[in-house]
Specification:
6 helices; single chain; 132 residues
């Protein structure tokens, strides 16, 4: 019998392999939750936004575009929660937008133990935390 690596739940090797897929699973969950909020009608059609794919915030693409979509989507979600957060324009200062987002996240009691500049990438864990 060869030295085959056994994969089982709790095995560190399996955890590392599975971790690569985690952002995609989180993003799929986010898209499904957005659909429950009628995002396709209320955000995409009413506000004239493009629909996001199941991988949109999981992989880095165009940071400027992703940040703009992220901040507008977050603005819409905050509106649903009864918060007043004005949707930023494309030419707004990203640092000011990030500062406003961080203030809103803190006011909701969410974790902000990450550098605010990470939100400007428009993708990754910090963006997921903002949606969850």
């Amino acid at each position: 019998m060869g030295e085959e690596m056994q994969t089982r739940r709790g095995d560190p090797a399996m955890d590392i392999k599975g971790a690569a897929f985690l952002p995609f699973l989180i993003m799929e969950d986010i898209v499904e939750k957005l659909k429950l909020l009628n995002y396709e009608e209320e955000f995409v059609l009413r506000l004239g936004q493009r629909p996001i794919s199941r991988t949109y915030f999981a992989v880095q693409g165009s940071p400027g575009e992703q940040f703009f979509v992220f901040s507008n989507l977050l603005s819409w979600l905050l509106e649903i929660c009864g918060r007043r957060f004005e949707a930023p324009l494309e030419d707004d200062d990203p640092n000011a937008v990030v500062s406003n987002i961080m203030s809103e996240i803190r006011s909701l009691g969410l974790n902000t133990d990450f550098p605010p500049s990470r939100l400007k990438a428009g993708s990754g864990d910090e963006v997921f935390i903002s949606f969850i």
